[in-house]
Design a protein that fits this description.
This protein starts with a helix and ends in an 11-residue tail after the last helix. The mean pLDDT is 87. The chain has helices at 4-23, 31-56, 59-81, 85-91, 111-121, 124-146, 149-157, 161-184, 191-201. The protein has nine helices and no strands. The protein is mainly alpha-helical and 212 residues long. The chain has one domain (4-85, 111-205). Helix 1 (4-23) packs parallel to helix 8 and helix 3 packs antiparallel against helix 6.
């Protein structure tokens, strides 16, 4: 059994192998591609913060961040494959209102609606993996976000290391899927093969369904 510290180390190596593929080539300059990358960047921040929290032993907020990471990644896929040009235009011009500091944003479907749209518009494998993640982890993540019974029971009795390893691997799978989407926004499409090859080389830190 690979422990949490081991998987954190493997995850760092996974990140080091993937990032050069998406950082060294220029991205497409379309508003859709730019907005997609904004949401993927947000998901990456959540992922990095989650790993730091796990390393420091702050397991509950780390797990809660997995939901935020997933939602940002899901929205990135929806923007790339399902959002209308009008929605992209409106989202790209969102500004904070000076009068009350609030932001007026265009409507966005809820998670179920995003997944349903992606069933019709996204590459089938990506839509399948996103839906699979929600079906596996959504209930547990909601408990940790909202202070539910599962989260409180783990706080009282401690959290099993295999559960933490599973959550980290799930987070790594979400990030890896997001990096495939990031590579699709590059002008050099061949970089996608580097991202996929890196995932296959780092199966030990990924969930089984991502490592195929």
């Amino acid at each position: 059994m690979t422990g949490l510290r081991d998987v954190l180390t493997l995850t760092d190596a996974f990140e080091r192998d993937v990032l050069p593929a998406v950082n060294q080539a220029p991205f497409e300059g379309t508003p859709r591609a730019k907005l997609t990358m904004v949401f993927l960047g947000l998901a990456h921040e959540h992922w990095c913060a989650q790993r730091g929290l796990l390393d420091a032993g702050f397991n509950h907020p780390a797990i809660a961040l997995l939901r935020l990471q997933f939602e940002a990644t899901l929205k990135a896929f929806w923007i790339a494959h399902a959002a209308t040009d009008r929605w992209i235009e409106r989202m790209g011009t969102v500004r904070v209102r000076d009068s009350d500091g609030r932001v007026s944003e265009p409507d966005l479907p809820k998670v179920g609606g995003l997944l349903k749209d992606l069933e019709r518009t996204a590459p089938p494998r990506a839509a399948e993996l996103l839906a699979l993640f929600k079906s596996i982890a959504w209930r547990e993540l909601n408990s940790f976000v909202h202070g539910g019974t599962l989260a409180l029971s783990n706080l009282a009795h401690g959290m099993a290391e295999p559960f933490l390893v599973q959550m980290l691997r799930n987070a790594n799978g979400v990030w890896g899927l997001g990096m495939v989407l990031a590579a699709a926004q590059l002008t050099d499409k061949a970089q996608m093969f580097r991202v996929v090859a890196a995932q296959r080389a780092h199966r030990d830190c990924l969930p089984p369904f991502n490592a195929r």
